[in-house]
Design brief:
Order of helices and strands of chain A: HHHHEHEHEHHEEHEHEHEHEHEHEE
Low-confidence stretches of chain A: none
Mean pLDDT of chain A: 90
Number of helices of chain A: 14
Oligomer: homodimer
Strand order of the largest sheet of chain A: 2-1-3-4-5-11
Largest sheet of chain A: 6 strands, parallel
DNA sequence: TTGTATGCGTTATCAA
DNA sequence: TTGATAACGCATACAA
């Protein structure tokens, strides 16, 4: 097993000092053209690459951004990551991803791993379990130690850091408005329990839309589920039960899996989509496009979100030390993608 | 912005030497009970965590495994990652992921980033573009420098490293056999061009299955597409065209998106699934479960694959230096998951 | 029982 | 123009 090439080895081989090698490789004017050429040729030949670890230690900077997210299956997260990577690349930063699998302990572990030297700052979407536990010490500790943090998607208001969100309330409102505009009046919502901020806000948007149309909000028409990231048998049964015998002509869901599950149960009891019941869902997944009928969705522009998050983080990383702390919350617009699960506006 | 706590700072604060602090924190017997307690209490109070970068530099080991994959949307990769992380955790390794987005340059960049100190070894699934370019210098360079590499999923035979594969030929054969067993005889396959190893092998399994049943292989029944990871308009049109007017009673596809697309076009021309045409697909996605009808699939056990890949890598990392190089290829079994897109075996 | 010195790979400062 | 030295944060062999 060959040892990696270091300045020291090059120096020994060429019989010069380490610092001469270092300077030559960085094109320092101090070094004579001759030796510089010689050293550079040698380094190139043997494919010398400086050791990032040593550089990080020396500079106390890694130029690496850490991303901590719950799951990666979601198409949404992929698009966010892409956005982050774009922006990072433009500013010469690298990106490293770790997954929490929606597990609190793992989120903490991952943060500690990355916080102890591997990363200059974090972009985080919290694990479900973390939100549930309401325990954010790992975040506040990182922040206390001077690690800039940007939260996105799953936000907690009280954490002092930059945040990037979509306007969930507005987005939900837009989705429900679309249902209203296409003629629906008996609209149910399948959402999450209120401890998930996004669920709460989207429920709010739903209510606002109905009210703006003078439609009464029926408590019976609101289903709040515990799960977010997948829809197991239990969740499916709850949706089935919720839809059974309900006189509705529209369903709004806060994610794609709820929508698909609802669509299945509706179809099973003989309802036609969109003629009997229309469906609109928050989503960024592939499911919506490929499902039959394809689903009208409120789309989240994950790439923009990622770019914005990275931009905020890099700003913090490169701002002069003395500057006052100041946290901004950026909002990313949503947009409606019409597909087959809703009727045309007349 | 507070500076991170270091041994040096603790030492100064407590008026002892750095090595005393270091030893105390590592419970060295050299240090008196008294000072040890004092130091540990202080460290705990101020939440001291050793700097990983410094440790890595010192030990020339990071205890970190780097994963380089093309895309993460695929449910399959998520399960593989989970497997890797499990095994890594059990052996006290950490895991870092980077995405190539199926882009060659990015794959190279990512490998270089991680190779220059951040990781002890790699687990890699190659980008599509890399396979296409047939340029693997970044891999061989890493290997030459003593970085152990394990390839999975998208393999290249000539690279000297450990490999984890599923038996694509066997899996495809099993899928097609199922179609045969349920009575299909006119079975088409939608696969990838042969430069993608998995596509090639699966095509082979398809042919073997047919032959074992004495069914003639029709060239017309084989569609080789260029894309792998998504199925855009162009790809969809090709599938549509391929299926049009074709007298078939079964379709086998090498991925879920091809299957869904095929199912749509078949339904559109009035075919019932599974009564007129049955479908079996290679897949690990959510689409198969949620599609209507849900799809019978050949499942890949990504988690096992991940575990195996990590195990092989860790073995290499912890083996004594002098040992001879020896590369193994591990095969992971596939299994058939029956759903609604195929008929029952009589 | 505690402290000093050295090295991991790099760069920056200063001396030669 | 080149080289020696110190420092980044840590662990450890050795000296006190």
């Amino acid at each position: 097993m060959k040892r990696k090439l270091t300045l020291k080895l090059i120096a020994k081989e060429l019989d010069v000092s380490i610092s001469t090698v270092s300077k030559a490789l960085r094109d320092s004017a101090e070094i004579s053209e001759d030796t510089r050429q010689k050293i550079k040729a040698f380094a190139k030949l043997y494919n010398y690459k400086p050791n990032n670890i040593a550089l990080s230690l020396k500079n106390r900077k890694t130029r690496t951004i850490g991303i901590i997210i719950p799951q990666i299956v979601h198409h949404f997260f992929t698009t966010v990551i892409r956005g982050i990577e774009q922006m990072a690349r433009e500013h010469n930063y690298n990106v490293i991803i770790t997954l929490s699998n929606n597990d609190f302990d793992k989120e903490v572990l991952n943060m500690e791993l990355l916080a102890n030297g591997s990363t200059d700052g974090f972009i985080v979407s919290l694990a479900k379990e973390t939100l549930h536990k309401d325990d954010f010490r790992h975040l506040t500790e990182a922040i206390d130690q001077g690690m800039p943090v940007v939260m996105f998607d799953r936000i907690v208001d009280e954490i002092p850091c930059d945040k990037v969100m979509i306007d969930d309330r507005e987005g939900a409102k837009m989705g429900v408005m679309h249902l209203l505009k296409t003629g629906c009046r008996k609209i149910a919502i399948i959402t999450t329990k209120d401890y998930v901020t996004i669920g709460k806000l989207r429920t709010k948007g739903y209510i606002e839309a109905l009210e703006s149309y003078g439609v009464k909000v029926e408590k019976d028409f609101i289903l709040k589920l515990d799960t977010i990231d997948h829809c197991g048998d239990d969740c499916s049964a709850k949706i089935k039960n919720f839809l059974k015998d309900k006189d509705i002509d529209g369903v709004f869901t806060v994610n794609e899996l709820f929508a698909v599950t609802a669509a299945k149960h509706l179809t099973a009891i003989g309802k036609n989509i969109p003629n009997d019941v229309s469906i609109v869902s928050f989503s960024d997944g592939e499911l919506s496009q490929h499902f039959i009928p394809s689903l009208t969705t409120v789309s989240q522009h994950g790439e923009l979100m990622g770019r914005k998050a990275a931009e905020l983080l890099i700003n913090k990383l490169e701002r002069p030390e003395e500057e006052v702390e100041e946290y901004t919350t950026a909002y990313i617009d949503t947009s409606l993608i019409e597909r087959e699960s809703t009727k045309k506006i007349k």
